[in-house]
Amino acid sequence: MKKYLFLPVFLFALVANAQIDSTLLKRVPVDTSYTRAMNMDAVYNRPFLQIGNLPASIGGYVEADYQYMGQDGITEGHSFRIPRFTLFVASSIHRKIKFLSEIELEEGGKQISIEFAALDLTFHPLLNLRGGVVMNPIGAFNQNHDGPKWEFVDRPIAMTEMLPATWSNVGFGLYGKYYSKAWAFGYEAYLTNGFDNSIISNNQNKTFLPAAKENALRFEESSNGQPLFTGKIAVRNNKVGEIGLSYMGGIYNRFEEDGLVLDAKRRLDVLAVDFNTTISATKTYLVGEWAWVLVDVPETYSQQYGERQKGGFVDIVQPILRGKLAGFDKAVFSLACRLEYVDWNVGSFEETGGNISDDLWAVVPAISFRPVSQTVIRLNYRYMQQQDILGNPPAKIGGVQFGLSSYF
Amino acid sequence: MKKLILILLGCLAFACENIIPEPPAVDEILDGPIDGLNSSEQARFLAGDFAFNDEVFSSGTGLGPTFVATSCGSCHAGDGKGHPFTTLTRFGQTAPNTPPNLLIGGPQLQNRAIPGYTPEILPEGTPFMKLTPPAVTGLGLLSALTDEQILTNADPYDLDGDGISGVPNYVNPPAYFVPKWFHQDANGRYMGRFGKKAATIDLLQQTVSAYNQDMGITSTFEPVDPFSGLEVDQEVSDQTVRDVVFYLRTLKTPIQRSQNDQQIIQGKTLFSQIQCGDCHTPEWTTPTSDIVALSNKTFFPYTDLLLHDMGPGLDDGVTEGSAETFEWRTPPLWGLGLSPNSQGGSYFLMHDGRASSIEEAILLHGGEANSSRTKFESLSAEDRTALIRFLESL
Fold first, then answer.
1. Where is the signal peptide (chain A) (predicted)?
2. DSSP code of residue B236
3. Measured between beta carbons, which residues in chain B are less than 8 angstroms from residue A298?
4. Contact A398 B19 (CB under 8 A)
5. pTM (2 d.p.)
6. C-alpha to C-alpha distance for A293 and A209, rounded to whole angstroms
7. Where residue A176 falls among pLDDT bands split at 50, 70, 90?
8. CA A69 → CA A265, A360, B21, distances in Å?
């Protein structure tokens, strides 16, 4: 076992020692208004590198991890993954026109997707037009999902499998911000292509919004001709933190084709609330999100596919050592813990009146080391219990995960 | 800092073997292969396990359009008994030896439908029976028994005068049925041994029928779509069907718990004394089988695989094969105590799940079981508890 633990450390050391000619590159500093930045700013609030005097800057991040997980005493053994490798390209076309794209290669290139490719035009701080492939601002994680920002190897289940992350679509919308002393107010509103029948007709045996991500045609045309609305409002106080309230909804199913009615129009509605704050006395960072999903599932379909879902997570991150550590001037060593819960099917059985289970909870204690702010090495222990739809004795899942993630 | 990291890594290395959650006790779960499979058989078991428990059908992969459940595992969670959520409704045959009325949608109600379709509705006034999905463990040993062995307990005319008959259900085999050496031809019909009415001859028929009638999945064995009534392309491969059959044949048998507990031993004695075992035959031994792990094995399913008159209280007015409407196959009792682990923490016993406890199930026995039920009612509270504990230990 020990040799497996030292292997990732060794590989990391190799990467760290690799040298390139950096004279042509200059690092574009992160937005200096970072302290006033909100989740909605996450797409631009990333480190970029600019090549010479080219008007474009590039960036990205990579995540690699090792895990040793098991369920009910059975393990698949040791496993190494590269869950995602993401490239950003940003350019300023004009002082008030900018473009950013984000291309993600997941699982070593098994899936390549355009997560973001949008043009932003600023007319006024409160009135910006965005068009292209936009990230639907449902919750905070979908907007602010970059691996290096988190102390945990896995993404929160509720925000990636209940809500789809990363969930992006072609569309247009408006956004804006207003500042007043320590306060910031932001809004976003988009109309995009949306979901399809797969959210209740999939091989997951449950209502599963991310199933719609498999449909790459959504970047070409709407599945049903009905726009999906996504809107968010958020308030931030520099001393208190940020809270956001978001909504996403619309008709999800293909109800008509060639003028022929195939089904009734069926709605999907999602509501999410998110927050983040830092307790100044202890420097404890708290971030969390909770969401509710409402889906109009045909009464004559199976209750296997729930009409309601709910779930969320909270991360508690406590820096315990800051300063010069292991040769890094501003390193941070933190302890952290994530609590998460998802109920895939809120309701009761028509046949018995008994509760429909189909839920899970997890606790994930973690240790993280940030040699620099853009790079994190993290060690997690995950313990999770997952119940089937009937509420039978839960599957118990646990194991260690080690990983690193860094912007570059 | 270095010390801290070394301590953490040390702790991790030490703890690694202990970080995976403990497995449940082997006698507390039904899942898992029977002992003695070779490596190629284990691989085939895994293929069947995946198809049975993980393969979920959707409209894109052939589900329905009308159906009852989306996967095998939906009805048989953890390979155990099912829940009323996936209870089947059968109808269309109201007398023995008559064909099911297909014109009214029989023999099974597909009570769910994919979006845009309308599920089947039970014709008004039609008698029907509800059937809770059974546990699927140990089926390989039951399928390895010979017809001759099973018929040893048959006494259709109660010639021994004990009040217990034991009747085989002779059914017309499907076109794809290939008799094995242990099947006995009865004028073109064969004895069923699976299903609540013992109307299914073997596990291939059981599997093919479940794909077709429960999920609306067609195969080369059963190519007719139950919704349209037309032959359509196969939606599950022959290989997958046969892998599932192999999986069902090689699932382990439930393991009795606390066998040496005095109260359970007392309960076992009472079980025999009040003649429960006259139908719930405790012990069987298989002959030589094509799967070595199933050969010459003595096992304890507590069933005779025969039909018995269970009285008017359990007569739903519907039947299958040559069974009377009041006749039901003796269900195996092994794994009975683990039923709540697959039924969401509750008991849903008897053929339609109407009994919410073992005691209630016993008290619902009628017909040939009247005598045993009466004897159970006359037991002291202590003896009743012992008998129930014995049944829970199975």
1. 1-18
2. S
3. 113, 115
4. yes
5. 0.90
6. 9
7. very high
8. 42, 16, 9
Phi, psi at B352, each rounded to 5°: -115, 10
B140 confidence band (pLDDT: 50, 70, 90): very high
Q: For residue A367, which residues of chain B lie inside 8 Å, CB to CB?
A: 8
Q: Beta strand A183-192 with B66-67: parallel, antiparallel or unpaired?
A: unpaired
Instruction: With cut-offs at 50, 70 and 90, classify the pLDDT of residue B17.
Output: low
**Segment A58-71, tens digit of pLDDT:** 999 999 999 999 99
Structure tokens of B21? 């959650």
Tell me the count of A-B CB pairs closer than 8 A.
Answer: 130
Number of separate domains in chain A: 1
Mutate to test the interface with A, among B29, B71, B83 (most CBs of A within 10 A): B83
Calculate mean pLDDT across residues A88-116: 88
Q: Among all residues of chain A, which has the CA nearest to that of B119?
A: A300
CB contacts, 8 Å: B19 with chain A: 68, 70, 381, 398-400
pLDDT score, position A28: 59
Length of chain A: 408
Give CB contacts under 8 A, 24+ apart, made by A160-164: A160/A210, A161/A208, A161/A210, A161/A342, A162/A209, A162/A291, A162/A293, A162/A309, A162/A311, A162/A342, A162/A344, A163/A138, A163/A139, A163/A209, A163/A270, A163/A272, A163/A291, A163/A293, A164/A209, A164/A210, A164/A212, A164/A213
Show residues of chain A in contact with B112, CB under 8 Å: 300-302
Averaged pLDDT for residues A325-349:
95
Q: How far is CA A1 from CA A400, B2, B306, in A?
A: 12, 20, 55
* Residue the block writes with tokens 């009937």: A390
Tell me the two tokens of residue A317.
Answer: 């991150």
Residue B313 neighbours by CB under 8 Å, 6+ apart:
B364, B366
Interface of A with B in 363-382 (CB under 8 A): 367, 379, 381
- Looking at residues B22-36, what average pLDDT do you find? 93
Percent above pLDDT 90 for chain A: 76
Question: Residue A2: its pLDDT value, please?
Answer: 46
> Are the C-beta atoms of A300 and A167 separated by less than 8 Å?
no
Check if the beta carbon of residue B302 is closer than 8 Å to that of residue B333.
yes
CATH number for A84: 2.40.160.10
What is the C-alpha to C-alpha distance for residues B156 and A218, in angstroms, rounded to an integer?
Answer: 65
Q: Is residue A7 scored above 50 in pLDDT?
A: no
B171-192 average pLDDT score: 96
- Mean pLDDT of the residues in chain B: 94
What integer is the mean pLDDT of B215-224?
96
Q: Give Cα A295 distance to the centre of its chain.
A: 21
Predicted-complex ipTM score: 0.91
Q: Tell me how close the Cα of B306 comes to any Cα of chain A, in angstroms.
A: 30
pLDDT at A11 over 80: no
CB contact under 8 A, A301 and B112: yes
Asked if the C-beta of A349 comes within 8 angstroms of chain B's C-beta atoms, the answer is yes
Q: Please calculate the CA angle A246-A247-A248 and round it to the nearest 5 degrees.
A: 135
Within a 10 A sphere around the Cβ of B49, how many other Cβ atoms?
21
Q: Which of A200, A300, A392 sits opposite B344 (nearest CB)?
A: A392
Q: Which helix (H) or strand (E) holds B261?
A: none
Closest chain A CA to residue B69:
A302
Give the burial string for A202-226 (b: 16+ CB within 10 Å, else e): bbbbbbbbbbbbeeeebeeebbbeb
> Is the Cβ of A53 closer than 8 Å to some Cβ of chain B?
no
Least CB–CB distance from A351: residue in B8, B61, B85: B85
Q: Which structural domain range is residue A31 located in?
A: 2-407
What angle (nearest 5°) sits at the alpha carbon of residue A140, between those of residues A137 and A144? 95
